């Protein structure tokens, strides 16, 4: 890359500057939808070695795919849309990236500056004297920051600033580029200074925080780790894994933190989803006198409807930018550095080790003898299908609740959107995951695992056209769709028999051929019975897929995993404590955890 | 309806109140996507006689479909989404409704009030202490007004206020309902007072405006009408048609005003799209000494890239809420009333009548001998397929430019989104058109014409899953898709050979079977050659469709209608005058009219 920069002319177009910066930080793919106010900007992508443009079927799908891309490699997902009609279609996807702290850069091609100044009634605008920056205001509440490019003098610095903000604060940023600016010249020498990604740190506070945590661990009789989502989001996955191996105390996880730590290790205890999960797990973590809570997201769907009961006096919080030990708060830290320093500091330190709780095998489910597929049967088998280096993706719905308790092989990554919970997300995001796996395999030689995307028919319908992009790009996800004729997660929340929870009938055998899949028939697999399921998942082409595969699992409309049913049942019991505390009366009325 | 109100109990749930109000104003269908913060609200729909819920595949499609519904009957389109993830996905659709002044009511089911007050981390929220009203701020710039329901005492009045605003100001409004409020009791007697839809009028100013217009017409030697979009949006279509018949002066139309006036009348002159259209048309309207410009939208895509040249001293503007005659402005008027009063006032008034310009037949196109389909050949044949009472829908792209100059039969309605221009719109909107035609046929006995939706493969991909709703609802649109392997409108603007303008290959024969169309094979029709085209459009089942039909027309990737090519070519000629005036240098850089 450096060599390439030196061969550039003295001045380069701003559009090219942007893409070279994007490439410099290790990004290999730009997603998005072309539109007449971004075409010239897209042209410059083709002049950047190692960078490709992959067009999406629509902008929401692009935002989801960029979010998926941003979850895996530590590099942001990037996507491009056009003025108004494009950028607004993506707002919900970007909002999800803010909620779940995913690094995403949304580049918007705007109308040219003179037309903005003239308030010209260019298509995609609103009104007689349109304010072309109106849409910029729409996305303001759901982004970290934006580069509102206007003056070419400071445009490169603004681009650098928001890329930095995206990476160090983990969240979505915008770059608004009036399209006439994409050809404005900027000095290529600016590229020789890399963007500074060092987080703002108070080293002294950080060291004191680490000391305090070590002190707490020394004193503890039954310490444990409780790993949540923000560990991986803030790039501390490996540091966390190393800390876990150093400590070897029981490690609990959340829905959103799942598979951050190797689940095959004997110290891995399981998912603590408040009072929903196994009693032994609850007793284990709730009796601990020192719980290191890492990167916590205490949302209803990540906490069993706010039913976590960790002892207040036992809690040591390690958050992305602060640490709290016994009521003492240390600001100006970075979670990645703290975990790394902590692992070092613990060398030679004696820490008490209790055994992880032993979860007894579940009794046979009442429907265990069924010949057809049931939710009580499929999840452990889907987990057994996984291999190291796979990325498994669980849609918010029965999948999230069904798959999380199952143990994953080493080096598997688990992707869900449990807090934001926008259905349709997982399927479009799997495109970004695939591209990211491909890019990092190509670039860093990391193993090219499979993307195993598990979704439902109701959810998949929202973003189903993105399969066309997967096929045309030669990607090879294994997409598993639970066909239960609609929104089963909603049926168990409310309106079990209401027609609104039934979606149009879908004959999935036609999905791959619709987008001209070259081996459509061989790559569509359907199972109604357990026997069929076993045969499907034994196929060699699913073990090592070379093209997009689609597996349809037919399930009963009212069948749901026991954990979902239990969380919902708890709305009338323990789970309402929180609601009562906040003054909410009438627990049956709110879909906590739905 | 009144009888029904009297049979209601003294108090009814607020949710029911909302739907009864919606029903009272003639709406028969509520669109939307169920989500756990709107389910209880949806339940009440089933208790309103004559009101149905039709679920969409996703929320953007719902917004588009509601916009389509709102364009036909004079009644607003209504759709329901859920907190955050649902409402944000719809933002672009709503923004289009504001741009194009379409009546839409967007009902958002929010989290319960106590959870909002507690800033609880309920799924779909953002942050540790989430502000549940964050999303409300997102849509603020792209709506007319919102009912932010919180206090049940004023909730019915707030609902009534925004419904009134939607109807009289023509645009999208929001109703935010915390889901716990849907069951709160309100007096049913409130329903006995209908919502007041009378616009705020200054009768004196209105009368003076009409007098001034009559005066201008009396003096004119070559008066004409120039009919634009806001006539139909503000429910003045019939008044305009009556005025045209009274005056019998030449009537010109815009893209967006197309088919407001009967195009079979001898006084109908054609489309005036600035300097793009026929010279005779330009000379006709540009030489007129009195042009009544009705409901104008002077956007680039509606004015040939700002190349209208109507004489300033000849222009009489009749806008939705004001009239301007010879520089004198009259405020406080309503276009519908002005047109109606004008028609009355002209009784017995002598008005000069010139003949409409005679447009000479076009020379044979260079590709006239082609056996395969060409853009120079198809448009007049698609127009010839139309029948009275059809609604024909043209996607922004080659279709809009190809179909607008063709004359329509009487009583045909023409729907496009020429100013906002969000691709994917037309196909999802056709669902709303179908439902609206069905509702008004059922309710008022209006003829049940066909919905003929003409789109392209690039555009249709964005919203393609909505065909599932059409099929499952037993609707019967004729969907015509031009398959030219991507974004042809963009190819002619910029990047003809760039890969970003090519979309994934689509084999449309699998689309109807994917969503379990009962007669999929018979209802899919494909034409590559002109001969095949003729055979397809002669089929009896397309003349009187009973189910959803899909027609694929295969076209060359670079083939486009002459009017589009001409408008784009003009970017380097007459069309740049405007751009030069506003100081824009480098005309090749902006896709005016793309």
From TrEMBL, chains A, B:
Give binding positions for Mg(2+): 457, 484, 486
Record-listed E.C. numbers: 4.1.1.1
Q: How many cofactors are bound and how?
A: Binds 1 Mg(2+) per subunit.
Is-annotated flag, keyword Transcription?
A: no
Which family does the UniProt entry place this protein in? Belongs to the TPP enzyme family.
The reaction(s) annotated as catalysed by this protein in its Swiss-Prot or TrEMBL entry are:
a 2-oxocarboxylate + H(+) = an aldehyde + CO2
* Naturally occurring in which organism (per UniProt): Trichodelitschia bisporula
Tell me which UniProt keywords the record has, alphabetically. Answer: Decarboxylase, Lyase, Magnesium, Metal-binding, Pyruvate, Thiamine pyrophosphate
Q: Which GO terms describe its biological process?
A: aromatic amino acid family catabolic process to alcohol via Ehrlich pathway
Protein name, as recorded: Pyruvate decarboxylase
The UniProt entry, under InterPro entries, shows:
DHS-like_NAD/FAD-binding_dom, PDC/IPDC-like, THDP-binding, Thiamin_PyroP_enz_cen_dom, Thiamin_PyroP_enz_TPP-bd_dom, TPP_enzyme_TPP-bd, TPP_PDC_IPDC, TPP_PYR_PDC_IPDC-like
Cofactor(s) this protein requires: thiamine diphosphate; Mg(2+)
A Pfam cross-reference name:
TPP_enzyme_M
Class of this enzyme: lyase
Q: Which residues form the Thiamine pyrophosphate enzyme N-terminal TPP-binding domain?
A: 18-126
